[in-house]
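[SOLVED] Need 3D model of a two-part complex

Original post:
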Amino acid sequence: GAVVSQHPSWVICKSGTSVKIECRSLDFQATTMFWYRQFPKQSLMLMATSNEGSKATYEQGVEKDKFLINHASLTLSTLTVTSAHPEDSSFYICSAPHSGGSGELFFGEGSRLTVL
Amino acid sequence: AQSVSQHNHHVILSEAASLELGCNYSYGGTVNLFWYVQYPGQHLQLLLKYFSGDPLVKGIKGFEAEFIKSKFSFNLRKPSVQWSDTAEYFCAVIAGGATNKLIFGTGTLLAVQP
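Solution:
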């Protein structure tokens, strides 16, 4: 099946620094990718839709200047958490839709961000 | 706003017991419904989905789910669970034809005791 890969899987950073998380579709092209955030014992919350070649679409309540998304190619989307603070600590997951339009999403393994 | 609720946050069963996980959504129009599973240390993966047609859908590993439109429900079932079914299960909905914009429930952690 299709594979979506994230890197890094775990990152620890100091408060005030920026962290970049990469999401790659390894064996298919994705014009759209989705970024989710998961708090402990809570659901996955859609943060934004990443669109190749254009601006990302952010969900209500998500700060676009805080969570910068770039979809530079058909296989790569990046999420940069700028000036990270401890409350940004979370599990971030990206996904890409099946190219056949089935509605199925393929998920990355997730990236755990810990801000000290 | 659309929402998905899963009533059971944590379920513990013995092997061979039957399983039913509840899922309800709030949206009055057309919906596409999914169950995803995340085994320990692995990615989320699709278990089954419903778009249209027979409201009883069968997925991988013996799972099935029934779409009951009048109850806004899409409960997941398996007649006899195995230890390897230990995982977290997420119900998800795409509402109103929104392209791939999945709304997830809070998840149910299933632990099957051997």
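Edit: The interface with chain A takes residues 4, 9, 32, 34, 36, 42-46, 49, 51, 90, 94, 99-107 of chain B (CB under 8 Å).
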